[in-house]
Amino acid sequence: MRRRFQIGLTFIGLSLLVSAQSSPVIMTIDSNPVTKAEFEAIYKKNNRDSVITDAALDEYVELFINYKLKVAEAERLRLDTVSEFKSELAGYRRQLARPYLVDNKMTDELLQEAYDRLKMEVDASHILKNIPADASPADTLAVYKEISQIKKDIEGGSITFEEAAAKHSDDPSAKSNKGRLGYFTSMQMVYPFENAAYRTQIGQVSDIVRTRFGYHILKVHDKRDSRGEITVSHIMVKSKKDDSEEARSKAEQKIKDIYAELNEGAEFGDLAMKYSDDKQSARNRGELPKFGTGKMVKEFEDASFGLGSDGDISEPFLTEYGWHIVQRLSYEPLAPFEEKERELKSRISRDVRSQLSARSFVNKVKREYGFKEKVKSLEPIRAMVDTSILGSQWRPGDTDKYTKWLFKIGKTKYTQAQFIEFLKKSQGRTNEQNLRKYVDDRYELFKTRELTNYEDARLEGKYPEFKALMKEYRDGILLFELTDQKVWSKAVEDTLGLEAYYEANKDEYMYQERVNGPVYRAKTQEVADRVREMLEDGQSNDAIEKEVNKESQLELTIISSILEKDENEMTQQMEFKKGLSEVFLIDGQYVFMDVQEVLAPDNKPFDKVKGLVTAGYQNQLEAEWLDELRARYTVTVDKDVLYSVR
């Protein structure tokens, strides 16, 4: 879903319908009533752990009124009749309807299968022969014969699987890895490929399997229990193959120096913060999100899962990204089904598995609504279609006489003319040469579409929660569109208004007192003292860094900075004056600054704070808009009903 629903849905996210008929009116906006049940459901949804007091209700009802006023204004302006709104709401409806247009029983079976497979990881190689999904029968057969022969040669012993992969596979990586994929688990490969991997015995070659990429054969090398998931911290020193020999040597020496410090008892997290080139994880003492098989490069996974206990530290190892040292923080076996269920449902809905559920759903709709079919009525259409349809040139002419029905869903009949129109609109260039098959395939698509549409049109009546969800999205889109017009886009586009707001409020956007100069981070107090002496002797930073780091790259780091008073622990403590500051012990390093300039407090220029200024201007515009709405609409709140929410 788009970001817009972060705005406004806080006040409208209902998962069930409110029974307005039996609920007292808590407020009216002009003549439109709002029930206690609606307000109460929303309030309690967004304040689940809060103590309900009169004061809390008074505060929340003001937010609720603001929301209701914005939606009422959008309706007054007839934004709900605009074609763009209708189109967007229809798009969201299609997304929201998807879970209702599948066979949930089959979905549950696929869900259980996926979880059961997660318990095992498969190590396999494969050979791929590319074939487009819409390839002609002749081309498809030729590729099938080719991979069949490769399989026979492997099974006959005239060539090994690895040799065949390097020689024949259309997977570009096969030239170097001989088809070896390594370990993977459920939901990491396309479904037909996954099926072949899990159904093939260790040491055996699979049957030929077709995926959207083409034809495959697999060789399964091993199957093992799930590794589960692991959380580690790491220290990384960047080093790539195309770096100079000197740079690679320098990186290797740096990781060895770090490892030596770890062996001498240094804290892993402290060293990660100081030295790791992965700055994102370094801020969190090197900690990475937990991961399982197939999420990291092989060397990193093997080193991490090879650690036996929490707190264990690996030796330095090399990946394509550079040198690493890993510390195990925690290990979790495969989570119980209940904990994985929601994630797996989401992934299955985006996977080819969902097509299996959709087909089963179509059969379910047929049974529910008494689907009937007259196959003979299809013959005249088969007869009228000619080869021009294969080139998207078919013109059926007058179809008035094609009135017989092909199938019925409930009491609704679908005629020959409707299918002919479907054929006309859906025709496109294809490699299919068999006209009868072409028509029959399109007929199956037509039936599936109409069966799905038939059920889709009845969702609001069958499922109260779906009806409530659609209202939720309707109001959310209206709220977003009008707020965008009145506040967000207006503030961005109104350059004169922005500049005027900045000028009127510029003292809110001030630099504190700042200092400018290089910051020195030394490994020890002795190194810090030595560097200070060299600075007093007039030596350059380049010369100092080269001399001090001669034996180890960890001795000294120099970074030029402009820092504000409250920017970090050092500036919070140091005196703002020119010259060398005191030395401060921060995160295990000895830090000081050579202050070359002290800058007085000053206004931040507009281009530096444009984002903050825009946000402030948007707040002002929204406040002014709400004042207008409060003046336009009459709002009355029954405080007795409001306080009864307690």
Provide tags for this entry.
Chitinase A, domain 3; alpha+beta; 6-stranded antiparallel β-sheet; single chain; extended; 25 helices; about 650 residues
Can you walk through the features of this model?
This protein is an alpha+beta fold and 646 residues long. Among the domains are: 106 residues, Chitinase A, domain 3 (Roll), CATH 3.10.50.40; 104 residues, Chitinase A, domain 3 (Roll), CATH 3.10.50.40; 88 residues, no CATH class; 94 residues, Chitinase A, domain 3. Helices cover 48% and strands 18% of the residues. The protein contains 25 helices and 21 strands. The strands form six sheets. Strands 14, 15, 16, 17, 18 and 19 form a six-stranded antiparallel sheet that branches. β11 and β12 form a beta hairpin. The protein is extended, with a radius of gyration of 34 Å. It starts with 24 loop residues before the first strand and ends with a helix. The N terminus is likely disordered.
What's the layout of helices and strands?
Blueprint: E1 25-29, E2 32-35, H1 36-46, H2 54-76, H3 83-97, H4 104-118, E3 120-130, H5 137-156, H6 161-168, H7 174-177, E4 180-184, H8 191-199, E5 209-211, E6 214-225, E7 229-238, H9 245-263, H10 268-275, H11 279-282, H12 298-305, E8 317-319, E9 322-332, H13 337-349, H14 353-369, E10 372-373, H15 379-384, E11 405-409, E12 412-415, H16 416-426, H17 435-456, H18 459-462, H19 464-493, H20 495-505, E13 510-511, E14 514-522, H21 525-536, H22 541-548, E15 556-564, H23 569-573, E16 579-580, E17 584-586, E18 589-595, E19 597-599, E20 602-603, H24 610-632, E21 635-637, H25 639-643
Helix pairs in contact: 2-19, 3-19, 4-13, 4-14, 14-17, 16-17, 19-24, 20-24
